What does this fold into?
Amino acid sequence: MKLNADCMRQILFTLEDKPLHQSLQAEDFMSSERTKQFLYDDIVYSVQMLEQKGFIAAKIYPTKDRTIVLVNDLTIHGQEFLEEIYSDTKWNKIKSVLKEEGLPTSINRISKVIAKLTLN
It folds into this structure.
């Protein structure tokens, strides 16, 4: 599956806005203003990738029919990553660089572009 970077970013914003000690499931993201336009599979895949990179604290339960996610919070690494992609201007520049270089979107590639832009 391909990472939907805009979905990933909006999930991080949603987690930043949620009350402390509240967990969110994929269905909660499906009804959130920030993330309701994304497909269930995009949300679940983004959550999986963010959890694997240590950017969010989540529990992931694959079942026969679908994957269930329970997202608790941003981690310190997730908060730092979000700070780097917070600005719409910077985010659009990151996406533009990825597109210009013909690179598939991944969290690692986004991080590399962030580092590249920071050095310039």
Q: What stands out?
A: The first helix runs from residue 5 to 17.
